[in-house]
Amino acid sequence: MDIVDSHIHLYPGAEVESLSWCTEGHPLRGQHSVEDYLEATKDLRTVSSHKLRSFIFIETDRRSHLETEAGWDEPLRELDWIGRIAEGRPRSGEGHTPQHAQMCLGIVLWAPIPSGVGAMQKYMTRIQHRAGNVLPLVKGFRYLVQDKPPGTMLSGNFIDSLRWMGQSGFAFDLGVDTRSGGIWQLKEAIKTIERAHDGLPNDRKVRVVINHMCKPDMRTRDDDGKPATEPFISWKTQIARIASFSNVYMKVSGGFSGMVPLPSEGEQGDWGSQARDDLVKRTRNWSGSWLGELLTVFGPRRTLFGSDWPVLNVGGGGNRVSWMNWWSVIDGFIKDSLSEEDQASFWSENALRAYGCAR
């Protein structure tokens, strides 16, 4: 069964200073390349018949601003970087080869969505001039709202940009954070999608691909070991409302950031060991209520697998084990919950549909 990883980040060592979050000493500082990613996923071949086919590249939150077009420079430089990967044109030391080009199935770039349609059209012109043969791989845009003030998504310019994206065939990656930001972000997301879709036929509505299960707080538990009632019910209620909209997909990704951190890779044991099996089982039980709710409200045709590599290394145990830990947790849950046909949709076909990628 093929896997399309719908959410990974890549960046070269020479450009880490362009990352807005990458301070000195940050655990993810330094190059994270295709070769590093394949190293993190290599054990899949030995423990499963699943085959990692390809990935969707998601922008890495480079330094940007909305005041002038100069604020677009670093995100456009990121297009150059992923373009070299997608075209098989590596520079020395960048950690990818011409053979890796086929793995990049789609690209989601940063965009000045709050600036309105005129800015989006100008930005698209810049992309067209810069992307060359990679242009067909640009499938969508993201502007992180998880750290933005209330009302950002609800501005007229933001809504107009989303409507333009839908009518232009682009997806919108929605990044909100229930755990750190608050449940109000989900409530605003509901209003945003409603306004962006209002009055449009289904094929003109923007496809919204939600990141990381909306980052719920999976750490807090009641005395009986079940998810804390109030955070879970609040998240569950808003998730059900979001799922009621057509053209909205949910990535089952980024879960480790919301859980109690896993032991470091040196403490986890080898694949197939009792220690590793116990770890995966405990983690699956810990996240099961949340995963089950997503499958219930979105169904098997609008949920898709994503790893959030390399971010999942923080909390997931480290690069040697974190991707495999997440895959193992999800694989066990999906096998128990879905038919083989629906499993194939979850692992790959839903990502192709959400991003409008060729099969």
Report on the architecture of this protein.
The chain has about 350 residues and is α/β, with parallel strands linked by helices. It contains 11 helices and 8 strands. The chain has helices at about 35-40, 45, 75-85, 115-130, 155-170, 185-195, 230-245, 275-300, 315, 320-335, 340-355; strands at about 1-10, 50-60, 105-110, 140, 170-175, 205-210, 250, 305. It has an 8-stranded parallel beta sheet, sandwiched between helices. Helix 3 links the parallel strand 2 (about 50-60) and strand 3 (about 105-110). Helix 5 (about 155-170) crosses helix 6 and helix 6 (about 185-195) runs parallel beside helix 7 (about 230-245). The longest helix has 25 residues, at about 275-300. The model has no long low-confidence stretch (mean pLDDT about 90).
